[in-house]
Design brief:
The complex is a heterotrimer of chains A (264), B (182) and C (428). Chain B is an alpha+beta fold and 182 residues long. Chain B contains four helices and ten strands. The longest helix of chain B is centred in the N-terminal third of the chain and has 28 residues. The radius of gyration of chain C is 24 Å and the shape is globular. In chain C, the strands form two sheets. In chain C, strands 1-2 form a two-stranded antiparallel ribbon. Chain C has a two-stranded antiparallel ribbon with strand order 3-4. The chains are: A mainly alpha (264), B alpha+beta (182), C mainly alpha (428). Chains B and C meet through helix 1, helix 2 and helix 3 of B and helix 3, helix 5 and helix 10 of C.
């Protein structure tokens, strides 16, 4: 009986599975990111390139409110250096932060001032408030990118496909001003203009700066930003699973011994 | 817990009892190890979080303080005293280096070399954590209103229930006018 | 608790304590000496697994509440603060979020087990109803917990579910306004949901105590459905059941850990990583997977009030089950026809779950348009839901009462030990 139920359930999964892939938008191509799989880790060079794309292109319109400069030097992050266990001491994080002007109040006078950033500061917001962000972008505020890679189905693959996927609209679709056509965007009409262009960002490691490269790298960076503890999680998970399998084996042996003379 | 019942159910197991015990003991030990390992994250989460740690050091511009004055700033949720001592106050502190002190320390040990005018102290009474008032007490240093502890101009305890001197935190001069605490 | 206590205090302190507050005796009688049928299979280990789930949810939940901010402005960011800054916060939050799903996986298997072996039949009606109460409380707790991260799905899920109650005539609007504490789901709603989400698990724990108490009064059911007649039919709970439950828990934890560490967001929805925005509804509102069958029943009925009543009725059937089943035989092991209907019922619950996650007008068989029947194409999930809903209710209201009177069950053994020793049916 149980076997029948189980088989039926398995058959249903097979039938129902493909049905989930109902699509109106174009399906993003799969990308073999380094962090995928049970032992995957982030590619630090890719994160550094992705951060550069974010900072030079995306940050003009998109905020990233949940990230602080110190996060860049956290374990698994773009500028992590095992010499600096405390991310606040990392020279890259300090230098990147100091390059930024942060709005603050003078602690004596209360005047609004700007001061160089410290690693503890969050990434600055390109707009002073949501209203300004809406006003500057045709009525729709550019979404915050902190957890963007987890907030869209398709994740980083979707982001990479979207950024590199702008095309001319198909016949019959007319674009109103301020709209662009992107087949990966649900509905196809997107407010964001094509943000990337070849060689728009110069990569410090000499990687050829194609649109696809920029899109893939920034997608990986956004995945790191959304899930910074991924490496720690997978490493701990491997240890936990090994323990649980051994523990289950021990318990099973114990169970067999306890029950060995009892029919059941 | 396991063994008596096992033996009761199988009075003559007919096998090497040590091996049988070993499996049960190993399983119970593994459960104990697993339990302890699980407990750690639940305890560690109470420690300061990463954003709190990031704010654990502050920098302060000393040019804002007049001689003889003290500023109190918030450091790790506690008051931090930065006092610009006059020569008279320094002399008073040095003079008492040889006096009988509950927690003997010389004034020189309590400030950075060559910076005798700057005294940086955690503003928590070492008795039970109240905030002492500046310039009060029998020694013109600090006086804690809660239980009557008197500190001198070096922040050393002289009279009252507090057991030790006011704590000097870890700090460094980044320049002549800028100090970094923590 | 049933029968004579065999507890013997071992030392002076336990004798002193036993005369004043016999907790040692209670534990001994309930979890050591307590006789369990010797033929319990692994489907009977989910009770223990469920206590583990409740414990995990309460402990991780208390920890999360130490760092969480129940305010419309702060909730989303405080959850992300837990994920990013709190030591092991990501682990604790993922345990809590996936723990809810694990809890429901276990409770559904536990319930199907009870359905199959007739564990709701006399004298276990109260035991079964207490279980249904726990299930209702779990659903309320899970729903309010899902609101707390204050993402798009949290917010609009809360809007949809609270609006359900508005379907009731006369009192509906009053009830929703009372629930919201305003004109819509907002700050006051979030705060009261947080408070209740913290409270209800302890209420669940209280009902679990009653559930276990009722269990120990009537004794456990078993795959034969025949009550133990002699000592030969039972074994002491410890070590026999404890070690088996322990092994099953450990295997269950492997599944749990796989989700927490390697696919922590697989059971969630991407839209809940977008902060709540009352002005924009996500394109496709779906509840968490464990509510999908009921959501499908709700949408299968074209009328708002009737849909809500059908949904609550689907749960109500469970409460009435002990009196709907007319069979003299408890376990379906000896009811071949009932087995068939049961398997279809399980499949129907699954189909309802799948249909609940789809848009009603989506085609079941892709790219095939048949003909419009009443209000929708016959090849659509709304029609699939309707057929499945019909079977769901028919199973309780028709099959259960009628089959018990008409079927011819196979012979039932005299005692548990007689089929155990030599019956080829024992492995099912």
């Amino acid at each position: 009986m149980l076997r029948k139920v189980t088989l039926l359930a398995a058959a249903l999964v097979l039938v129902a599975g493909p049905a989930f892939a109902a699509s109106e938008a174009k399906k993003p191509a799969d990308i073999a990111f380094s962090y995928e799989g049970p032992f995957g880790t982030y590619d630090q060079a890719q994160l550094q390139r992705g951060y550069k794309v974010y900072r030079e292109v995306c940050a003009a319109c998109h905020s990233m409110n949940l990230l602080a400069f110190r996060n860049l030097a956290d374990r698994g992050g773009p500028f992590y250096d095992s010499k600096y266990k405390n991310a606040n001491d990392n020279p890259y994080a300090k230098a990147i932060a100091a390059d930024t002007q942060i709005n603050d109040l003078d602690s004596e006078t209360g005047d609004a001032i700007q001061r160089p950033g410290t690693p503890a500061d969050r990434f600055p917001n390109p707009y002073p408030n949501v209203i300004a962000a809406k006003a500057g972008n045709g009525g729709i505020a550019p979404p915050d990118l902190s957890v963007m890679a987890k907030a869209r189905s398709g994740g980083p693959e979707y982001i990479a496909a979207l950024l590199a996927g702008y095309t001319d609209p198909p016949a019959g679709v007319t674009l109103s001003p301020g709209l662009n056509y992107n087949p990966y965007f649900p509905g196809g009409l997107i407010g964001m203009a094509p943000p990337l262009a070849p060689d728009q960002v110069t990569f410090d490691d000499g990687t050829k700066s194609t649109v696809k490269q920029q899109a893939t790298d920034v997608a990986a960076f956004l995945m790191w930003a959304a899930e910074p503890k991924l490496e720690e999680r997978k490493q701990m998970g491997a240890a936990v699973l090994v323990f649980l399998v051994l523990f289950s084996g021990l318990l099973y042996a114990s169970y067999r011994r306890v029950w060995r003379n009892e029919s059941h | 817990m396991v063994d008596p019942a096992v033996n009761a159910a199988n009075p003559s197991g007919g096998e090497d009892p040590s091996r049988r015990d070993f499996i049960h003991i190993a399983a119970i030990s593994a459960a104990a190890v697993g339990g302890a390992a699980v407990a750690w994250p639940f305890i560690a989460q109470m420690n300061p979080s990463a954003d709190t740690m990031a704010l654990a050091s502050v920098e302060y511009d000393l040019t804002k303080i007049e001689p003889g004055m003290q500023v109190t700033i918030n450091w790790r949720g506690k008051p931090l005293f930065i006092r610009y001592r006059t020569q008279a106050q320094i002399d008073a502190a040095v003079k008492d280096d040889g006096a009988s002190l509950p927690d003997p320390q010389t004034d020189a040990e309590r400030h950075k070399e060559g910076k005798a005018q700057w005294l940086v102290l955690v503003g928590s009474c070492t008795h039970l954590g109240c905030v002492p008032t500046v310039g009060g007490g029998d020694y013109q240093g600090w006086f804690c209103p809660c239980h009557g502890s008197h500190y001198d101009t070096s922040g050393r305890i002289r009279k009252g229930p507090a057991p030790t001197n006011l704590v000097v935190p870890e700090y460094a001069f980044l320049s002549d006018t800028k100090v970094k605490i923590g | 608790m049933s029968g004579h206590s065999t507890y013997q205090p071992k030392n002076a302190f336990s004798r002193w304590m036993d005369a004043r507050l016999p907790v040692g005796r209670l534990v001994w009688d309930s979890f050591v000496d307590y006789p369990t049928p010797r033929n319990l299979n692994y489907w009977y280990t989910f009770g223990g697994i469920l206590s583990l789930c409740l414990g995990v949810q309460i402990i991780t939940g208390i920890v999360l509440a130490m760092h969480y901010t129940p305010s419309a402005a702060g909730a989303f960011n405080s959850v992300e603060h837990i994920m990013r800054n709190v030591n092991y916060g990501w682990l604790i939050r993922y345990m809590h979020a996936n723990g809810a799903s694990m809890f429901f996986i276990a409770v559904y298997l536990h319930m199907f087990r009870g359905l199959y072996y007739g564990s709701y039949k006399a004298p276990r009606e109260v035991l079964w109803i207490l279980g249904c109460v726990i299930y209702l409380l779990m659903m309320a707790t899970a729903f309010m917990g899902y609101v707390l991260p204050w993402g798009q799905m949290s917010f609009h899920g809360a809007v949809v579910i609270t609006n359900l109650l508005g379907a009731f005539p006369i009192v509906g609007e009053t009830i929703t306004t009372l629930l919201w504490g305003g004109f819509a789901v907002d700050e006051p709603t979030l705060k009261r949901f947080f408070s209740l989400h913290y409270l209800l698990p302890f209420v669940i724990a209280g009902v679990v105590v009653l559930h276990v108490w009722a269990l120990h009064v009537v004794g456990q059911n078993n795959p034969t459905g025949v009550d133990p007649k002699s000592k030969a039919d039972t074994l002491p709970f410890t070590p026999y059941a404890t070690v088996k439950d322990g092994f099953a828990m450990s295997v269950f934890l492997i599944l749990f850990a796989t989700f927490v560490f390697f696919m922590p967001n697989a059971l969630g929805h991407a839209d809940n990583y977008i902060p709540a925005d009352p002005l924009v509804t996500p394109a496709h509102i779906v509840p968490e997977w464990y509510f999908l069958p009921f959501y499908a029943i709700l949408r299968a009925v074209p009328d708002k009030l009737m849909g809500v009543l059908a949904m609550f009725g689907a749960i109500g059937c469970l409460f009435a089950l002990p009196w709907l089943d007319t069979s003299k035989v408890k376990s379906m092991r000896y009811r071949p026809q009932a087995q068939l209907y049961f398997v279809i019922f399980v499949a129907i619950c699954w189909i309802l779950g799948v249909a609940g996650g789809k848009l009603p007008d989506d085609h079941v068989i892709p790219h095939l348009t048949t003909f419009n029947f009443i209000d929708a194409d016959l090849n659509s999930y709304v029609w699939l839901s309707r057929i499945a809903t019909l079977y769901y209710f028919a199973y309780f209201l028709v099959v259960m009462p009628v089959l018990g009177l008409t079927e011819k069950p196979r012979p039932v053994p005299e005692t548990i030990s007689s089929p155990v020793l030599g019956d080829s049916d024992k492995k099912d």
